[in-house]
């Protein structure tokens, strides 16, 4: 929009227009429109002049400086541009003033329009408020009209209902008058009461009329009771006739129901059941349907049940076979009930009530019938023989029957039984047996124990008879012919008890009852094991007593012939063998007792303890009872172990007496070197002890082993001291004695008893009183003062006691100390 060149700004046309600043305004475009024409002309001139000039310098103001003289300016349009720029500024200022003036005018117009708009809004708000008030009044009016209409509708509905009720009442009064006409006359009734197609309507009306008539009769009776002078004639006839009609109608419907049931016409059955539900809530129909089921009326079904469970052997079939039979029978019963569910759901309006009656009838009739054959409670006075199963057979059948019947109850409950308490009803079937269960369980355990003991005695007697008639001495020589304690038998006792505990858990739902029954049953086990082990130990002690009797029988004096002495020695050897065999037998019995007690304690810990803990005091009481039972066994074992020690020491004394020579400890001075070997008596005694105690080391454990070996070590120490006091010793004999003491000490070291080891070590030191010279005795006593008491007693056994005047030396030693 730039015009052609002009000499002055006044002659130039307008450079700008307001429209140029509207829309997408661009300053670059505006500026280009002002100067493009001038710049284009300048570019053309400049390009020509630059091409023709060489080696010229360009000055900072844009002029070129030549090498020779000066030339005219290269940008002659500068003045025109300056003029354009000045004109542009003036026009821009004018445009700004125009725009400011227009803006002022617009502000005034906007203020005027805003005032008008506010006035209009105020008027509109007043109009809207008026409309709202009008709408509120209209809504209130509409609501009032609606309420009035609703009241009118209620009145109309009430009037219609009253009209309908009045019509029904008129009809009922007419029907009631028909029933109240004459007693027993049902022939003149309306066709409604004889029309089979309207039975439901007739039943409903008859029930209403009967309820009204019976209520009226009841009021008449009350009036008569308070002394009314002239009671009016009531509806007694109507009540009686209605009762007869309802009974006749109910029987007619039941007959139709039976016919439809035989034909499996479920729709007719459902129709009859629905109508019959108006009579005593349909109880007669439900009971009639349940009672007509084949499983309740067919004798063959009941016989088949008994045949299935008991078979041909009856109760002797065993609990396992009976369990399988009950499972099969109860499965059939469940399937039968499940099939009935479909019919009951399709026919009866209250199927839960029918299922309740059906399940109750199943339990009370069909299940009870088979239980009566299975559970014949035995007498506790005359117990059934063990050969026929005894009490255990009854208890096992009882447990199986109870468990399977409980499973049947759960299955029936899952099928559906209405509001019937199936669990309670099932429990009631066994109450007579559960009340006496603890007594029967205890009696059964006692019967089993007695039977087992008789069996064991019979086996022992048979074994004895098979070997022929033997003397008591032969019996003593062979204790194995006697009845031995068996861990297998004790395990069988525990198995009986474990089975009984499982029944206690099955029959006892309450923790207190369970704990009481478990404690009673466990007490039976304690009595059985205690009695069995104690009697077994007593039998083993009898062998020790017989061996002792044999030993005492062949004790002879000194003045006998050589032949008699040889016979006595042979008999003594036999008695010693019997004693050794009896010791071995008793040790094995003690070992088996320990194993049996361990089994008992393990059983208590794993099975019994957790069942007693819920009841305060039950666990502690059972622990005390178990401790008492174990103590009685330990007492018998302790007595037997002491007898074993007596037997061992008796044989040790016999060996020492027969094998020890006087020359063993007083060898002659023949010039031969001293014998450093242990004496023959010592060798025999150690060999005997090693042999006879071998079984003790393996059979005894813990404190039993420790106390036994300690007591034996003390007795051996005492016996050796008494034995050596019978001899006199010279120095070489003292050396041999010390060798014997070393041999004994090495043997008793296997006892692992420090007190015994110490005693034999002191014996070795004490033997020095026979070896040292008389003048060295003082230093011996000073070095080991603990041996002084025994040493003073044994020093008198020195062969030089008198010749060396050791007595006076001892007195001086004692006086100095």
UniProtKB/TrEMBL annotation:
Q: Which residues form a coiled coil?
A: 89-116
Record's keyword annotation contains Hydrolase: no
Annotated stretches, region: Disordered: 457-477, 659-678
Q: Which residues form the Exocyst complex component Sec10-like alpha-helical bundle domain?
A: 201-808
- Print the keywords alphabetically: Coiled coil, Exocytosis, Transport
Q: Where is the composition biased (Polar residues)?
A: 460-477
List the GO cellular component terms: exocyst
Task: Report the record's Gene Ontology biological process terms.
Answer: exocytosis; Golgi to plasma membrane transport
Pfam family of the protein (one): Sec10_HB
Q: Which domain of life is it from?
A: Eukaryota
> Domain Exocyst complex component Sec10 N-terminal: where?
79-195
Return the similarity comment. Answer: Belongs to the SEC10 family.
PANTHER family, alphabetized:
EXOCYST COMPLEX COMPONENT 5, SEC10
What protein does this entry describe? Answer: Exocyst complex component 5
Q: What is the protein's species of origin?
A: Phoenix dactylifera (Date palm)
Instruction: Tell me the gene name.
Output: LOC103719865
């Amino acid at each position: 929009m730039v015009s052609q060149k002009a000499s002055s700004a006044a002659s130039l046309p307008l450079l700008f227009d307001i429209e140029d600043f509207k829309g997408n305004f661009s300053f670059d475009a505006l500026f280009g429109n002002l100067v493009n024409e001038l710049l284009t002309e300048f570019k053309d001139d400049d390009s020509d002049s630059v091409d023709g000039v060489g080696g010229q310098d360009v000055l900072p103001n844009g002029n070129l400086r030549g090498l020779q003289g000066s030339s005219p300016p290269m940008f002659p349009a500068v003045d025109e541009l300056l003029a354009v720029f000045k004109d542009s500024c003036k026009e821009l200022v004018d445009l700004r003033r125009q725009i400011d003036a227009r803006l002022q005018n617009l502000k005034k117009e906007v203020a005027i329009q805003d005032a008008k708009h506010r006035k209009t809004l105020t008027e509109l708000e007043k109009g809207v408020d008026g409309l709202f008030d009008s709408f509120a009044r209209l809504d209130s009016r509409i609501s009032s009209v609606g309420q009035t209409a609703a009241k009118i509708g209620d009145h109309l509905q009430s009037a219609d209902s009253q009209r309908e009720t009045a019509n029904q009442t008129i009809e009922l009064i007419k029907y009631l008058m028909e029933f109240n006409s004459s007693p027993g006359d049902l022939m003149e009734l309306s066709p409604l009461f004889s029309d089979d197609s309207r039975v439901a309507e007739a039943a409903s009306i008859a029930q209403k009329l009967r309820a009204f008539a019976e209520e009226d009769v009841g009021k008449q009776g009350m009036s008569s009771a308070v002394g009314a002078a002239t009671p009016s004639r009531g509806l007694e006839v109507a009540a009686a006739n209605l009762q007869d009609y309802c009974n006749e109608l109910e029987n007619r419907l039941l007959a139709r129901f039976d016919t439809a049931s035989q034909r499996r016409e479920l729709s007719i059955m459902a129709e009859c059941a629905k109508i019959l539900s108006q009579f005593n809530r349909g109880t007669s129909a439900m009971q009639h349907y349940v009672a007509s089921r084949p499983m309740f009326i067919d004798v063959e079904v009941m016989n088949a049940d008994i045949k299935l469970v008991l078979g041909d052997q009856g109760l002797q079939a065993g609990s396992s076979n009976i369990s399988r039979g009950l499972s099969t029978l109860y499965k059939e019963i469940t399937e039968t009930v499940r099939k009935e569910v479909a019919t009951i759901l399709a026919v009866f309006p209250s199927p839960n009530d029918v299922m309740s009656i059906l399940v109750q009838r199943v339990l009370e009739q069909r299940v009870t019938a088979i239980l009566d054959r299975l559970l014949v409670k035995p007498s506790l006075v005359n117990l059934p023989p063990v050969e026929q199963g005894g009490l255990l057979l009854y208890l096992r059948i009882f447990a199986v029957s109870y468990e399977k019947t409980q499973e049947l109850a759960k299955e029936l409950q899952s099928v559906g039984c209405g509001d019937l308490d199936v669990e309670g009803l099932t429990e009631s079937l066994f109450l007579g047996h559960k009340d006496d269960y603890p007594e029967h369980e205890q009696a059964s355990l006692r019967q089993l124990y007695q039977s087992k003991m008789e069996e064991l005695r019979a086996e022992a007697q048979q074994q004895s008879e098979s070997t022929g008639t033997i003397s008591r001495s032969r019996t003593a020589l062979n204790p194995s012919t006697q009845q031995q304690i068996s861990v297998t038998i004790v395990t069988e006792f525990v198995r009986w008890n474990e089975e009984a505990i499982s029944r206690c858990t099955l029959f006892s739902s309450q923790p207190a009852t369970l704990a009481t029954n478990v404690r009673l049953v466990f007490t039976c086990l304690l009595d059985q094991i205690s009695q069995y082990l104690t009697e077994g130990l007593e039998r083993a002690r009898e062998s020790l007593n017989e061996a002792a009797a044999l030993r005492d029988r062949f004790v002879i004096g000194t003045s006998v012939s050589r032949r008699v002495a040889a016979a006595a020695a042979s008999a003594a050897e036999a008695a010693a063998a019997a004693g050794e065999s009896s010791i071995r037998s008793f040790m094995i019995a003690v070992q088996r007792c320990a194993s049996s007690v361990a089994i008992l304690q393990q059983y208590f810990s794993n099975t019994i303890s957790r069942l007693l803990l819920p009841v305060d005091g039950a666990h502690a009481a059972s622990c005390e009872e178990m401790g008492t039972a174990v103590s009685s066994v330990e007492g018998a074992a302790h007595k037997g172990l002491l007898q074993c020690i007596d037997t061992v020491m008796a044989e040790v004394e016999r060996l020492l007496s027969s094998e020890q020579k006087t020359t063993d400890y007083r060898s002659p001075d023949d010039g031969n070197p001293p014998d450093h070997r242990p004496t023959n008596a010592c060798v025999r005694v150690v060999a005997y002890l090693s042999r006879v105690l071998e079984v003790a080391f393996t059979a005894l454990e813990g404190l039993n082993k420790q106390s036994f070996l300690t007591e034996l070590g003390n007795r051996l120490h005492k016996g050796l001291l008494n034995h050596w006091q019978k001899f006199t010793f010279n120095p070489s004999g003292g050396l041999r004695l010390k060798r014997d003491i070393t041999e004994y000490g090495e043997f008793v070291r296997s006892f692992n008893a420090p007190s015994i080891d110490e005693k034999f070590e002191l014996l070795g030191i004490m033997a020095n009183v026979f070896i040292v010279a008389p003048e060295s005795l003082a230093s011996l006593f000073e070095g080991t003062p603990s041996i002084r008491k025994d040493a003073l007693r044994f020093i008198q056994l020195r062969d030089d006691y008198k010749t060396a005047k050791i007595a006076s030396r001892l007195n001086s030693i004692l006086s100095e100390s």
